[in-house]
Amino acid sequence: MQPVQTALLVLLLPLASAVVIALFLRKQGALASYVSTVAAGIIAALSLKLIFGGAHDINQSWEWLRFGNFAISLGIKFDDLAALMLFVVSFVGFLIHVFSLGYMHDDGARARFFGGLSIFMFSMLGIVLADNLFMIFIFWELVGFSSWLLINHYHEKQSAADASKKAFIVNRVGDFGFLLGIIMCYWSNGTVNLTQLGDHHVYSTMIPLLLFCGAMGKSAQMPLQVWLPDAMEGPTPVSALIHAATMVAAGIFMLCRINVLMVPDALTVIMWIGTATALYAALCAIVQSDIKKVLAYSTLSQLGYMVAAFGLGGDSGFHSTTQISSGLLANGQHTPLQVVTMTMAISGGAAAAMFHLTTHAFFKALMFLGSGSVIVGCHHEQDIFKMGGLNKKMPVTFVTFTVGVLAIIGMPGLAGFFSKDAILYLAMENNKGVFAVLAITAVLTAFYMIRMWKLTFFGEARSKDASHAHESGLSLTLPLVVLAILSVIGGYSGVFTKLAGYVAHMVPEAEGSAHVTILLVSLVVMFTGAGSAWFFYQSAATDTLEQKSRLVFNGLTQLKESFDNLYNYYVAKIQQRFAMLLNFIDHVLYQGAIQGLASFVGLFGYGARALYVGSIHAYVYWFLLGLVLLWGFAAGIF
Amino acid sequence: MITASLNSYLVVSALLFVFGFIGVLLRKNTLVIFMCLELMLLASTLALVAFSRFNATLDGNVFVFFILTIAAAEVAVGLAIIVALFRKRHTVQVEELNHLKN
Question: Which value does ipTM take for this structure?
Answer without folding.
Answer: 0.73
